[in-house]
Amino acid sequence: MLGVLVVRVGAGPFVDGLRLTSAPSLLLATTLTAATTACCAWRWQRVAAALDVRIDLRSAVLAVYRAQFLNATLPGGVLGDVDRAVGHGRDTGALGRSLRSVLWERTLGQVVQLTISVAILLALPSPLRTVGVATAAGVVGLVVVGGVVASARGLRRRLGGAVAHDLRAVLASRADRAVIAGASAVAVAGHLLVFLLAAHVAGVSAPAYRILPLAAVVLLAAAVPANVAGWGPREGVAAWAFGAAGLGAATGVTTAVVYGVMALVATLPGALVLLAGRRTAPPARVRPRRLQEAVHG
């Protein structure tokens, strides 16, 4: 995809994205990312506690920073979260529940991001409004198909029961639901603000209400685990979205490159965590019943 973009718009937008990024903008993006990282860590802490694999907030923040850096430097964009889950599983002695805690933390965050993105696309004037309608319809279709598949004999009893058990545990408390939804919403807002900052740095003069729908679509594309260190779909969708909005495909690429540089620099604290060899702190105490489960697998 990057090769196609270079052929279509030239190397100029990529060079401009690197040239325009400044120290003050990187500092502001890093500060915003620190807030989103804390929100993601807080969300994970609540989900992990609900699944009885507790983690303190400081360790969660360090682990999330480490995961973000790995996601930003390795193909796929999810290997850092796999590393986070496995590391926490080794610390707690409950690998399965630790893996599920990260899976649910990421999934619930994506659900909130998708909901906010669809709301933005439907509420604000944009040539991409049909994307919001199509996305909402696609989500409904996936839910229906998932329900039909899960109703199959055996699968419903095994998979459906496990999913229902986890969701009941994670979403049982009103306080937990509020934390998960609120932290996710703040995290999404932080990422959108960084994208608006990237557009400003790239020289986009359009008002924020015109850029927000484009940002929502680009960030959804960036979440697709089919990239190389975060690059690829983000720049391709940005070129398409900005072109459709009349702002120019090249401008979209430049904005996406600036955002990519900001996102990478903002995750550098995770490199320090990685070099220090820090994962998550082992819990002070494991409940006897859970310890017996861990011993017996």
Number-wise, the strands total 0
Q: What is the domain tally?
A: 1
Main sheet characteristics? none
Strand content: under 5%
First CA to last CA: what distance? 43 Å
**Shape, please?**
globular
Q: Helical percent range?
A: over 70%
* Mean pLDDT rating: 83
Structure classification:
mainly alpha
Alpha carbon gyration radius: 20 Å
List the secondary-structure elements in sequence, H or E.
HHHHHHHHHHHHHH
Count of individual helical segments? 14
As residue ranges, the low-confidence spans are 278-297
3D architecture notes:
There is one protein chain. This protein has 297 residues and is mainly alpha-helical. The protein has one domain (13-282). Helix content is 79%, strand content 0%. The protein is built from 14 helices and no strands. α4 (57-73) packs across α13. The chain is globular. The termini are far apart. The model is unreliable at 278-297 (pLDDT under 50).
What's this entry about, in short?
By secondary structure, the protein is mostly helical. It is built from 14 helices and no strands. The protein has one domain.
SSE layout:
Layout: H1 2-9, H2 12-20, H3 23-50, H4 57-73, H5 79-92, H6 95-123, H7 129-150, H8 155-171, H9 174-201, H10 208-222, H11 233-244, H12 249-266, H13 268-276, H14 288-295
Any descriptors?
297 residues, mainly alpha, 0% strand, globular, disordered C terminus
